[in-house]
Amino acid sequence: MIYVTRRAEFSASHYYHNPSFTPEENRRVFGKCNNPLGHGHNYTVEVTVGGEIDPTTGMVLDLKELKILLEQEVIQLMDHKFLNKEVPVFAEKNPTTENIAVEIWSLLAPKLAHGKLHRIRVYETSDLYVDYYGE
Amino acid sequence: MVYLTRRYRFSAGHRLHNDDLSAEENRRVYGKCNNPNGHGHNYLLEVTVAGSIDPATGMVLDLVALDGIVAERVIDKLDHKNLNLDVENFRTQVPTTENLCLEIYKLLRTPLEQVGAERGLQLDRVRLEETSLNSFACAPEHAGRKKGMV
């Protein structure tokens, strides 16, 4: 099994809020991330696909396919957006790095034509990232 | 199961030396790291916790809690210290990055797993870079960890 990783970047804003919490609870739990006007990050997504090398091409998959899939399914959806307001799945749950990683997995897993999705890694900053392996 | 990793930095001095070895053996085994006056590194620490996402917050663990525990248990004890002289456990063991990595894992495991007990949080991995060219990881297997995943 060989693992191929492709990176993509997007920039987006978000804030954390739970409508069933009181304003005080929201401020206590989410701190400065609770600012309702939002704040932003430059996110980096790493998509890792595992598979066998095709002997005729020497490749696990065509990286261009993966690049286009990432662009269509993730970057167009999230880049330069206010995640809470413009990405429907985050209308009901917080766009935390954890939830973003799980969401990107569910967007990409059914559409990969070759190989098996192994890991989604999302960096919110260079010092904070989340890994999701699909379970 | 989601794996959340946070990076931290600290700087410390050390000397690799084993009293049970002769001076010549120490020089042969540890090379320039055996310099009696010691030397220092900027360490980069990665702490990974594994757990389920709390549906009320969307988080595996509150980062303020994680930062607080790492600061209190690790950074305050190690940053700008002489590891051999200032850190109790390294008076009797050599402060290699391997030993330091294990030591940090032991310092963090209980407080992190206590703070995340409701959600079954586990300390998944501690990874330590001594320089940008070498790193060590301590990742014991646990219920959620896939075999061989480092």
Structural shape of chain A: elongated
Helix content of chain B: 25-40%
Give the CA-CA distance, first to last residue of chain B: 15 Å
As laid out across the biggest beta sheet of chain B, the strand order is 3-1-2-4-5
Round the mean pLDDT of chain B to the nearest integer and report it.
Answer: 93
Beta-strand fraction estimate of chain A: 25-35%
Distance N terminus to C terminus of chain A?
20 Å
Largest sheet of chain B: 5 strands, mixed
Query: Radius of gyration of chain A over alpha carbons?
Result: 17 Å
Helical fraction of chain A equals: 25-40%
Question: How many H/I helices of chain B?
Answer: 4
Q: Measured on Cα atoms, how large is the radius of gyration of chain B?
A: 17 Å
Structural class of chain B: alpha+beta
Question: What is the average of the pLDDT values of chain A?
Answer: 96
- Parts with pLDDT < 50 across at least 5 consecutive residues of chain B: none
Strand fraction of chain B:
25-35%
Oligomer: heterodimer
Instruction: Describe the largest sheet of chain A.
Output: 5 strands, mixed
Number of helices of chain A: 4
The count of β-strands of chain B is 5
